[in-house]
Amino acid sequence: MKINNLLLISVFILFIVGCKKNTNKITIDKVSLSQFADNRTKRIINAEKLSDLFVQAKIIDLETTNNSLIGTIEDIILVPEENKIIILHKTTKYDILVFDFKGKFLQRIGTQGDGPGEYRNPRPIAYINNKLVVYSQNRKLLFFKLDGSLLSETSFSERKWNFTIEKMSFYKSDLYVYTNNPYYNFSDNKSYRVFRLINSTDLGGSFGKPEETFGFDGGDIALFKNKIIFTGIYDGNIYQILPEKNECLVFTSLGELYDIEDIRKSSNKIKYIVENIKEINAFSKLINIDSFLFVKTIKNLLVVDSTGIIINENIKDDLPIPQGFEGNALRLQCIYYNNGFIQASIRNSRITETSTPNPSLIIYESKFH
């Protein structure tokens, strides 16, 4: 009996309330769950650390040229079917570079500027349906082919859309954009967290009320099991969007991650956060890895199955940088992709007194598929 069938008749019923606060943690006893789970799910249920689930698969040394010098890496997108790697990085400005899977530099995508096909500090980026989508900080969406040619662009200013984009994901032909700034993100004079852009051009729905985030860059949006899901920051909820009904529901809940009342009452909120950073917990990242949802918070990493049941609540992140490498070239500790994790570090043997080469990508892939 497959786990999905078990959970259809499980006594664990998820009470669904459209985008309202829900602090009921959705979980299940590991022993009971393991009795009916398939081997892949059992492996995740019983995992104590990431090395139980992922193995180092390859290392790609990124070529260093005058045109491809990399600063701090903000995002990495692997496109195996095109034999290409897209890297968003920042030196003095954000830039987009493309390499092949042997690390050879191929080209830049786009240039800085305000003209057609140009961007200002592009961030975030996403790749779907053979298109690279770039959000420019001068309020434009640009769509590129991986050879660098511009497909189209959409100006937010011309359409008078009153929101910024922090993260984004596709479902079918629509783009879902995520933000957590409640002061500058409106539709129909109300503040929202997610906006649906039909065919990536027309506003077609708004979902979820943003929380006060006090400058914290957290939360995420992702495509999981043919549904768009997104997180709160502190509220502990992961929501799913029902585009046909133009509403969102609670998909699963970790229980409230952090009560922000003390921050709200503090006269110096930044000072309070700094002094209490070890106590604060918030959503950081969502990723679909081999049909399971890996959820990263500030304090832990957990796994959710396709029905919203939390099947492992605390997995230790123990994927170290291998011996012979030095430092971390990512703004985040590591980057997820659809089959595992990516770290970036500099190979010691490539460093000379006069040259610091581009980093290497260390790719870990799942061993439970």
| Shape, principal axes of CA atoms | globular
**Tally of individual helices:** 6
What structural class do you assign from the helix and strand content? mainly beta
Q: Give the distance, in angstroms, between the N- and C-terminal Cα atoms.
A: 18 Å
Fraction of helical residues? 10-25%
Proportion of β residues?
35-45%
Number of strand segments: 29
Low-pLDDT regions: 1-18
Task: Walk me through the structure.
It is a single chain. The protein is built from six helices and 29 strands. It has helices at residues 3-8, 30-36, 39-46, 156-159, 261-265, 269-275; strands at 54-61, 72-79, 84-90, 94-100, 105-108, 111-112, 118-119, 125-128, 131-136, 140-144, 150-155, 167-171, 174-178, 186-187, 190-191, 194-198, 202-207, 221-224, 227-231, 237-242, 247-253, 283-289, 292-297, 301-304, 310-315, 325-326, 335-337, 340-347, 360-366.
Give the tags.
disordered N terminus, mainly beta, four-stranded antiparallel sheet, globular, five-stranded antiparallel sheet, 369 residues, 6 helices
Brief summary:
The chain contains six helices and 29 strands.
Summarize the topology.
Layout: H1 3-8, H2 30-36, H3 39-46, E1 54-61, E2 72-79, E3 84-90, E4 94-100, E5 105-108, E6 111-112, E7 118-119, E8 125-128, E9 131-136, E10 140-144, E11 150-155, H4 156-159, E12 167-171, E13 174-178, E14 186-187, E15 190-191, E16 194-198, E17 202-207, E18 221-224, E19 227-231, E20 237-242, E21 247-253, H5 261-265, H6 269-275, E22 283-289, E23 292-297, E24 301-304, E25 310-315, E26 325-326, E27 335-337, E28 340-347, E29 360-366
Parallel strand pairs: 6-7
Antiparallel strand pairs: 1-29, 2-3, 3-4, 4-5, 8-9, 9-10, 10-11, 12-13, 13-16, 14-15, 16-17, 18-19, 19-20, 20-21, 22-23, 23-24, 24-25, 26-28, 27-28, 28-29
